[in-house]
Amino acid sequence: MLPEAARLTAVVKEMLARGEAATVGEACVTVGLSRSAFYKYRDNVFPFNETSRGRVITVRFKLAHRRGVLHGVIGLLAVRHANILTIYQGLPTDGLADVHATFETEALEGSIESLMRDLGALDGVVQSEIVGRS
Question: Which residues span the domain enclosing 21?
């Protein structure tokens, strides 16, 4: 799963954007996040409303820890014209890797439902679920 620090980074960014905190340090203290963790994740974590081009989807995967599985997921997203914004992959444990992918669906070929079905059918994809939409 996505580290708690990544989620809190998004909260800090939202607080700063809304003017609820004057500085990064103030916002980090408020949510209980170290400034170093904020700076580690700030360029890769963002509130969904920061994207203006198209609908944004975040999908969480459990992938078998085998060569080429993530490549297959990325390849299918590319073929279906999803515009990948971020990918986060945790270290594999017990033969599985947690992956979060956020992508735009403005130019998506086919429906989100058919994309999810096709992603779930890929060899090595143990689980896939939408965890965020905007």
Answer: 4-45
